[in-house]
Amino acid sequence: MPDWQKLVRQRLHGIALDDDDTAQVVEELASHLEEDYQFSVAAGAPEQLAIRRALRHVHDWNDLKSQIESSRQKELPMTRRVSQFWFPGFLTLLLAMALLMLIEAIGPKPWVSPAWGGPPRMAPVAVVYFSWLLTLPFVGALGAYLSNRAGARRWAVFCCVTFPIFPYLAFFMIGLPLAAILDDHVAHNIVLPAFFIGFGAWVLLPALALLGGGLPVHYFSGRKA
Amino acid sequence: MIASGIKRGTAELAVLSVLESGALHGYEIARRIEQQTKGSLRFTLAALYPMLYRLEKQRLIRGTWETSPNGRRRRCYRLTPAGKKSLAPLRGEWSKLFAALHRLARVSNA
To answer: Within an 8 Å CB–CB cutoff, is residue B54 touching chain A?
Structure first.
């Protein structure tokens, strides 16, 4: 006879329920499959056929998993999305922006990339607030902690941690190219190296700083759970 | 066999009705419904448990772990007072639906 509990545990792997709830669901479903199997065996079915009959109860384990999640979780799906993603995401964004404004107002001056060769440029190529970057790991850690605590999956935690760079990412990936195409007065002086330096300063470096704080928190709290 | 859409609507009534006679565990609920409906309503594990958990969340049934004399642990479900109270209006609604269908299309609820 198969180890039904092991089988159900494997098929429901990653179900978004707490440990106690998961153990109860596994035990209950395994018990149902086992009784079905024993019923078939008692009725004269060979073992393999009885196993196949029992397993025919579930066509799609992923679908069952999500149905059990939504039927057992205490919160509504919308509330869950808010607590796992929207709330920590917007909190990290708000905190990162507030810190940037504070540093702009009273903090150390930013590093401005020097203009290379030729006549001095009218606009700086990149402005990097290193003091702001130093605060971002804490912001990322907070986002990861809140998202983790609400039981979010890995991708949701990752998005919450990096949420503050999304506006900049949208600016560099959508806004700036569109401006360059549609309005040559807006972006006539943008050169490719400047684009990459700006992208690095406002997207890549902040993302690394946020992840530097967020990923260890996600990893260690995941291990503790 | 009855189409799955209608079955889904009747599932709640079926479960609450079989639990009216006393506490049953999941497998027994499925067997009892199948026997009493002569196989017209059949619950697979995938259909039964999400519904049981939903009914439990709505506080219409309550599940408790019990150990049988042979040492097997099972979760037995019983109707709560709210579940008992909800049965009469549910039956009324379904009776009305069958009566309406009968008038409309000569569908009998017998």
So the answer is: yes
